[in-house]
Give the backbone structure.
Amino acid sequence: MYIGLKHLHSFLPYLLLTVLLFTFLRSVIAYRGKHPHTEGHRKNGLIVLILAHLQLLIGCVLYFVSPMSRSGLNDFGLAMKDSSLRLYTLEHPLMMILAITLITMAYSKSKKDLSDQLKHKVKSVYFGIALLLILSRIPWSAWL
């Protein structure tokens, strides 16, 4: 089970990052071009939201069964001294939770009765920051 979840948690980000980048760019273009916020824009945000929460769910399970994070949680002082262990124990989970919170806020705020321009602006800003947070804390050495 652990290996399967680990592979899924390593594959799903490719899909999530692709859809998030597409949705972010689409929101920026729509904001700059003063386009209406359509059903397609809403569905793109929903797909990002679903993929992000699915990735979070798998990541939470892995966090508590992974030997790497278990080791870090057992000796937190050692984890803070070792950059690789710190990444898996603290930095990666924290940044991903923050990014998914921003994705959730973007989707939630864009459903409110705001102007189309404001909806695109909110999505552009929140999705952009979330994208940067995700890219900053992906364990690239283990992922590629």
Observations:
- The chain is about 85% helix and 0% strand.
